């Protein structure tokens, strides 16, 4: 099949693609996720995400034929973009000459498998796509069972989330849900909530975190709502030795997740 080529930035597909990049409502209506960069697109494909469009910069070393042969991408979804069309869509400089649009996967609690390891990350009301991407990146690195994106302020399918996750978005089982739905699911799975809290009496390294747990992090400006402070929840604090009294939410999550990982691994030895 001959690969379609588009040069004009006024082409209907290019204009639609540009809207998907910038407007969350248009992405939701279309059911798509926009991904930018060779590494990110390849990881999405490796994770079983279904491409709707894959674009290669015309004249680049990476050809559409290579993508067909090495990645098995159907010719019907491939397109080559000439100068104006490419420039309209490429957000980053040096983007490795590949852009793609994927079908947004189902992200419900019902499709999540039961936690086998006993480690879940719960991101509540995350405001910035960069932070959500970093949370997913850490979650993948630690090897969590799932990430619950609870009442998100930012769109989980924002291209910046995919970019900052370095592919974690594609690999980690994810569900988008409300706080009440999340708490019900976590209780059903038998997970103890671990809450980072400035007023906690014990540091995170002093708490017993070797069992099945869910690390819950909230918005940076106001923290978690009181509803998360359930009777059996573990409230822990990360020691702050300097002037500042809090960490970036993705850094806090990383500190807590790796302490859980350390204790869980130690309990197996």
Please provide a written account of the structure:
- The protein has 269 residues and is of the alpha/beta class.
- It has two domains: 4-103, 60s Ribosomal Protein L30, Chain: A (2-Layer Sandwich); 109-268, SPOUT methyltransferase, trefoil knot domain (Alpha/beta knot), CATH 3.40.1280.10.
- Helices cover 36% and strands 21% of the residues.
- It contains ten helices and twelve strands.
- The chain has helices at residues 12-22, 24-30, 38-46, 64-71, 83-89, 129-142, 159-165, 168-171, 179-188, 249-268; strands at 4-6, 32-36, 51-57, 78-81, 98-103, 119-124, 146-150, 174-177, 192-196, 202-203, 213-217, 234-237.
- It has a seven-stranded parallel sheet with strand order 8-7-6-11-9-12-10, with helices on both faces.
- Strand 3, helix 4 and strand 4 (78-81) form a beta-alpha-beta unit.
- The longest helix is centred in the last third of the chain and has 20 residues, at 249-268.
- The N and C termini lie far apart (56 Å).
Structural key phrases:
single chain; 269 residues; alpha/beta; 60s Ribosomal Protein L30, Chain: A; Alpha/beta knot; 2 domains; 7-stranded parallel sheet; 5-stranded mixed sheet; elongated
Could you give the order of strands across the largest sheet? 8-7-6-11-9-12-10
Number of helices: 10
CATH third-tier fold name of the largest domain: Alpha/beta knot
Backbone structural class: alpha/beta
Number of strands: 12
Domains, number: 2
Annotated CATH architecture of the largest domain: 3-Layer(aba) Sandwich
In whole angstroms, the N-to-C terminal distance is 56 Å
Main beta sheet: strand number and arrangement?
7 strands, parallel
Average pLDDT number? 90
Radius of gyration: 21 Å
The parts where pLDDT drops under 50 for at least 5 residues are: none
Order of helices and strands: EHHEHEHEHEEHEHHEHEEEEH
Output the CATH homologous superfamily of the largest domain. Answer: SPOUT methyltransferase, trefoil knot domain
Tell me the helix content: 25-40%
- The first-level CATH class of the largest domain is given as Alpha Beta
Roughly what fraction of the amino acids lie in strands?
Answer: 15-25%
Shape: elongated
């Amino acid at each position: 099949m001959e690969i379609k080529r588009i040069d004009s930035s006024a082409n209907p597909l290019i204009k639609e693609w540009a809207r998907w990049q910038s407007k969350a409502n248009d992405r939701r209506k279309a059911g798509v996720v926009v991904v930018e960069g060779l590494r990110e697109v390849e990881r999405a494909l490796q994770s079983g995400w279904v491409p709707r469009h894959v674009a290669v910069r015309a004249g680049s070393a990476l050809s559409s034929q290579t993508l067909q042969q090495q990645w098995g991408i159907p010719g019907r979804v491939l397109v080559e973009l000439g100068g104006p069309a490419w420039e309209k869509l490429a957000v980053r400089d040096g983007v490795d000459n590949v852009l793609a649009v994927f079908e947004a996967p189902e992200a419900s609690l019902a499709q999540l498998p039961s936690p086998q390891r006993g480690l879940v990350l719960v991101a509540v009301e995350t405001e910035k796509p960069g932070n959500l991407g970093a949370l997913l990146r850490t979650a993948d690195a630690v090897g969590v069972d799932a990430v619950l994106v609870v009442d998100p302020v930012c769109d989980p399918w924002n291209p910046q989330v995919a970019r900052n996750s370095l592919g974690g978005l594609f690999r980690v089982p994810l569900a988008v849900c409300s706080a009440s739905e999340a708490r019900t699911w976590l209780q059903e799975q038998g997970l103890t909530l671990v809450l980072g809290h400035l007023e906690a009496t014990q540091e995170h390294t002093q708490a017993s975190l070797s069992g099945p747990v869910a690390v819950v992090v909230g918005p940076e400006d106001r923290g978690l709502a009181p509803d998360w402070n359930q009777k059996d929840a573990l409230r822990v604090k990360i020691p702050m030795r300097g002037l500042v009294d809090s960490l970036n939410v993705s850094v806090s999550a990383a500190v807590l997740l790796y302490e859980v990982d350390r204790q869980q691994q130690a309990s197996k030895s």
